[in-house]
């Protein structure tokens, strides 16, 4: 019985870490948009905007689930 509770707690903590990482990733994309697009190594322009859109949708889905 104790093992199940430990696992449940770990899953909750893991979810909180994901919530913190998504806004950080969004901030990174927005803050360095020009450099990312000028460099073209990490993302092409279309890939960049797809990543930005996908990140926003992940955050919105997470907030909707609360």
What does this molecule look like?
The chain has 66 residues and is an all-alpha fold. Helix content is 88%, strand content 0%. The chain has helices at 2-31, 33-39, 45-65. Helix 1 (2-31) packs across helix 3. The protein is elongated, with a radius of gyration of 16 Å.
Question: What is the fold's blueprint, element by element?
Answer:
Blueprint (H helix, E strand, L loop, with lengths): L1 H30 L1 H7 L5 H21 L1
Helix pairs in contact: 1-3
Main beta sheet strand tally, sense and closure:
none
In oligomeric terms, what are we looking at?
Answer: single chain
Per the principal axes of the C-alpha atoms, what is the gross shape? elongated
Q: Report the mean per-residue pLDDT as an integer.
A: 76
Q: What share of the residues does DSSP label as strand, in percent?
A: under 5%
Question: How many angstroms separate the termini?
Answer: 27 Å
- Report Rg: 16 Å
- How many DSSP E strands? 0
Are there runs of 5+ residues with pLDDT below 50, and where? Answer: 1-14
Structural class: mainly alpha
Total helices: the number is 3
List the secondary-structure elements in sequence, H or E: HHH
Helix content: over 70%
């Amino acid at each position: 019985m104790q093992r199940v509770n430990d696992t449940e707690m770990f899953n909750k903590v893991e979810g909180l870490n994901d919530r913190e990482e998504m806004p950080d990733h969004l901030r990174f994309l927005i803050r360095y948009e020009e450099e990312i697009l000028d460099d073209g190594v990490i993302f092409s322009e279309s890939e960049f905007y797809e990543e930005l859109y996908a990140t926003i949708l992940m955050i919105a889905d997470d907030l909707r689930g609360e």
